[in-house]
Amino acid sequence: MRKQLFLTLCGLALSLAALAQGPRVTVRSGVLEGIDSSxxxxxxxxxxxxxxxxxxxWQAPQxxxxxxxxxxxxxxxxxxxxxxxxxxxxxxxxxxxxxxxYLNVWTPARxxxxxxxxxxxxxxxxxxxxxxxxxxxxxxxxxxxGIIVVTANYREGIFGFFAHPQLSKETSYHGSxxxxxxxxxxxxxxxxxxxxxxxxxxxxxxxxxESAGSMSVSALMASPMSRHLINQVMGSSGSVVGPRPxxxxxxxxxxxxxxxxxxxxxxxKDLRALPADKLNSIAEFNGVPGYCVDGKxxxxxxxxxxxxxxxxQVPALIGHNNTEMPVMAxxxxxxxTLENLKKAIPSMFGPRADAEKLxxxxxxxxxxxxxxxxxxxMGGSIFITYGTWKWTDLLRQTSTKPVYRYVYNHxxxxxxxxxxxxxxxxxxxxxAQKAPVHRDLGAVHSADIEYAMGNLATxxxxxxxxxxxxxxxxxxxxxxxxxxxxxxxxLGMPRWDAVNGWQGALPVMHLDLNSRQVADPQIEExxxxxxxxxxx
Length: 536
Description:
Largest sheet: 11 strands, mixed
Distance between the termini: 90 Å
Strand content: 15-25%
Mean pLDDT: 93
Helix content: 25-40%
């Protein structure tokens, strides 16, 4: 009797343990156990390379070593160590660390053999901040609609983009820098090698990013480390082929050496011995870090790669927001008047700029236009939209696969946090009274993310309404159509033409509650004139 009771209790315990066990998958490095969210299996904090610490600081990401037993993948790994550059960004992990090379997977697969398409998202944040754990990037919503979503961290700031002659001497390719980009390439390789274990098709991989993430996508398309691994790309607001220079290796090395000397460091050994928090505190990165032609990730300027058509030949969906940046941000404190703008144009566009021509092309005719949509268009060009256009224009000329363009116009609703304002790349900042005016004119920088990923509910700082959820449904459909087919067209969407081989004004989809395709010859004239000013 006691033996039978004992066996019964043991059986009950085993049954309860089985019920408590999360979903498991076996990847090349070992077994992972995640969680089940009503049919979507979530695996967080998966390492995809060795921790880049100690002697591995400022080295290319190294292959991961296998683990024994079952690794728990229920919590996010640490965020990349970073500055608080853009305000109080919200993360899913409470920890920032140099040990940050982790990714996360959301899969709706049941049998893990469905061969589902895969979206891999790289976060924005100026290559200085951000994380794949941010709630706005989470993949639960899109996974419920039939795709696998992956987010991946990469080294940022001085940890990801530091070059030095002593580092270059260590490598077989005699270069240094671009470690953050290399991390992204390693994440892509990991997905190609392992995503089938989650029910994904490694040959249906779309990489996507916003801002610095979009810059990264354009870089990954051009790099010999990654271009052969990519099947499709999406980019939102940013590229590495705009006015911001890609440094030569010598320039990047000189910058690194000058910085090290300023802080009293003569050897890389001493810099590697410095605690990560201390290194981060003295890094002095107050702008997008310098990336360079290092000889490994970039073997030539990416402009040359695109001009020769040697980038990844894959379908592309690329766009930007319509009010990315007010032009007053570049007017050096002058009042935003038409007269002051005329004075400021040479400092913004260079001494060769024809002020009257630019004002005509941007439709700026009054003080009201300076702070209105025309002024935002001018500020956006300087900030990020011209570089985004340049990327699509190069692809239009050299890609054998369809290229689709869009502009996102839907404004976010009222911000609910008193005394704060939305940060440029997420989170909040103080001094709300100093925030750019007329935020209701359109979509500001980074405002598209929650809509496209179906994550409005993860951001409680805005008073989302029915129009916002409707807009999110539209944007999600664009992403899902493209990830699944390489084409944003689909039921319930207006006709959307690719720009390849198009004669005359190029078609651009304006995404809003009333989405429509527009071909504006003046926009093309403007961007080609900016080409003359920005690209030497």
